[in-house]
Amino acid sequence: MSFLLKRDDATSITPPLSQAGGYVVVIVVGLVFAFAMVFVTRVLKRTAGEDNSKTEMFMTANRSVRTGLTASASWLWSTAMLGSSLVGYDYGVSGPFWFAAGCSPMIVFFSLLGISCKLKIPEAHTLLEIVRIRYGTVAHLVFMFLCLVNNLFAVANMLLGASAAISALTGMHIIAATFLLPVGVVVYTFVGGIKATFLTDYIHTLTILIILCFFSVKAFTVPEIGSISHLYDLVLAASAKAPISGNHDGTYMTMTSTGGIFFGIIHITTNFGLVIMDTGFFVKAFAASPKAVVPGYVIGGIAYFAIPWALGTLMSSVAWGIQDQPLWPTYPRAMSSQEVSAGLVLPYAAIAIAGKGGAIAVLLITFMAVTSTLSAQIIAVSSIISFDIYRRYFNRSASDRDVIRWSHYGVIIFAIIAAAFSTMLHYVGVDLGWTLYMLGVVTCPGIFPTVFTILWRQQSRPAAIIAPLLGMATGLGIWLGSAKGLYGSVSIATTGQLLPCMYGCLASTFSPLPYSVLITLIKPQNFDWNDFLKEKLAFEEASVSSSVVENEYGAAEEIDEPTSRSDPRWLPYMRRWTVIAAIWSAATFLGHWVLWPLPMYAAKFTFTKNFYSAWLVISIIWLWGTLFVAGFFPLVDGRHQILAIFKAIRNGGRPKKVETASPTDGEVSSSDSTKGEAVAAIPTLILKH
What ranges does the record give for the region Disordered, renumbered to this chain (predicted)? Predict the structure, then answer.
């Protein structure tokens, strides 16, 4: 900034925390969580008969995860916190809003894909199984490539940002952080599978939200800030001295930002690719019970909106407002472009308002967010390796134990490859900013072919194979060509610029649409959805009673949903949820991306003090509401199951006797729960549901 001494060669500050602190968090805290999950897994096996040595339990949690845990699962990426503050600093108030608007619509949209998969192919474990059954081996291999590229770049994006933040806060070597962050994740994912992922997501999300709500209060206790009104004055004065290029009147306080809306376009296309081509989202949708898929994804998507919006707006405002004052970590210089691009706006702002406590808080939330989402990515790739590679191409008669073993191999293999790939990107000069902008070029080509695979019976085999490959080629060509045409060369610096990335993302996203339609028109497939049911995919089928279930510990609950296609209520029930998902998907996109922001962009409105105060206050209230939804809803939703587990532990570790309604004739029978039959009939704990 012009009013500060700027030294672009200064790319870091003196770490406020010791290297030992960094290693304690990354290794010790990671392993504590890991062994806690191992312990919980053992307890669940003993008290509830949930055996993670069984494939269906390890990969899909017997397809019965409840709404509360589905709603709190894996939305909170570390890039949401680091990246939203980064774009807020670059583009003003529009940046965090577009970051949030680029995330929530596709999470809600995935409820439509998830419930459609549950309806059409309820035994599936991965997206790729659906592709293989419909289109055959070649398409299966093409989509496998697309999904693995998606997972690899998504993990690299997270690790690059998280490792840079941890290094800046502790002085820990960035490569050490890159390789050590996945260690604890590997341990608990190896043992607990998808169940451990759900539980860890919940604990991490709750902890992160508590810290973010702390920041939303702590910022205004700093004398240099004092109030929202004074913060507005500070930011307005700063942006008057150093106008933001592309913003209306150069001010921070406007949604009319050319860079902001360009980023919004990049971000929404990128995230549609990241979500739809991420097998982890499908794994979690398959793990959810039928009645949890739609409300879980809808509640999760809408609640998540507040996190990048509130945090990014507040912390980027703090950065703009007080970076010319002695409490700012880089004072008397401004942040260098390298520091901003590395995602250090949030850590520096936290240090400014809370000192070492702020540094510790950011270290914890970064660690928890990245390990939580790493777990989802690892389990996704593990499912591809075990089901779509090993079981399909190496051992079609693989036993339950064989698939579990290769799932374990997959957990370890992908963690090592992802850390090594992130290290390579770091050493060639790539950081969070570069991956944040270009990610969609490689993740978006499969969006329309995948959606058509699930929702459009006409898409043909050649269209499914050719369209995404042509789309990726088109996107890469336009991305690199734009960098060359606009900036004269193809380099890390030019390919990370906003316009080449936007053009590349748009080409990768939308070119497969006409490719697929045109190729399909030559010879449509007219696929029969019932063909999905011809192949047996599940190793075992869990049955759940459709009546009121009670046990001797007082855990009672009415199972009011059909649980199999043989139930006459199944089709109308699932179709009703499909309609609800479609309505929410359209409403969320129109609300968050069209009706709310675009009129403000067109109006060239500059936020007044009162409007900015209302904007920030509403976002913070929404953030606190997200805390209650993600933190307490899963506990309320699973209260009967939690009580049952505690009572089982008190009675020696396992229930003595349970009453179950027979799924075949409706008669009540007794069974010994030591063999685990009770679990199929009684929802005994929150993790299962």
Answer: 654-675
